[in-house]
Amino acid sequence: MRESRSAHADGVSEHVLDELVQNLAEKIDILLDRLTDRALAAPTAGTTAWRSQWLDRDSATGHQQQAHRQSIRDALARRAALTLHSATPSLAPSVSADRPSSPRARPRRTARRIETDQLSIF
User: Fold this and answer.
1) Which of 2, 1, 73, 82 is nearest to 34 (CA)?
2) Is the separation of the CB atoms in 89 and 28 below 8 Å?
3) CA distance 101 to 90
4) What is the spatial distance between Cα 95 and Cα 103, in angstroms, rounded to a whole number?
5) pLDDT at site 7
6) Residue 91 gets which letter from DSSP?
7) What pTM was estimated for this model as a whole?
8) Confidence of residue 103 (pLDDT cuts 50, 70, 90)
9) For 20, phi and psi rounded to 5 degrees?
10) I want to staple 37 with a disulfide (CB 3.0 to 4.6 A). Which of 9, 33, 42, 120 is the partner?
């Protein structure tokens, strides 16, 4: 039973912890992107300069810029003691050595459940 494996998380099921960890990984990923943009002084989304970069993303220059951006993002993650697996960051083994590893990989959640009783703001 998976419940007994995380006795240090009293009263919280593995399922709940897995969902929360996935949520945390998504937030870290977003924050890493924002901090990378700040480090590179990237133009604000929606501006003319941003649109120009966006339209140029498939060119040779765009590929070079993306490679440079990825190297900056990786450097930020390393300095923060994060390791990047596919596109989702996770805590480095030295930081999370007390946490047992999961035997299965969870797919990244892409869509949120829409509540039909909820009024839309937008």
Assistant:
1) 73
2) yes
3) 12
4) 19
5) 45
6) E
7) 0.55
8) very low
9) -65, -40
10) 42
What is the three-class DSSP state of 119?
coil
Split at pLDDT 50, 70, 90, the class of 80 is: confident
As a residue count, the chain comes to 122
In this predicted model, what pLDDT tens digit does every residue of 18-77 receive, in sequence order?
999 999 989 999 999 999 999 999 888 889 998 998 898 899 999 999 999 999 999 998
Tell me the C-alpha distance between 53 and 34, whole Å. 16
89/93 Cα distance (integer angstroms) = 12
**Could you tell me the CA-to-CA distances from 90 to 24, 26, 30, 100, 120 in Å, in that order?**
9, 10, 13, 14, 33
Q: Cα separations (Å) of 34 from 13, 26, 31, 48, 76?
A: 32, 13, 5, 19, 11
> The tokens of 14 are what?
């593995």
DSSP state of 6: G
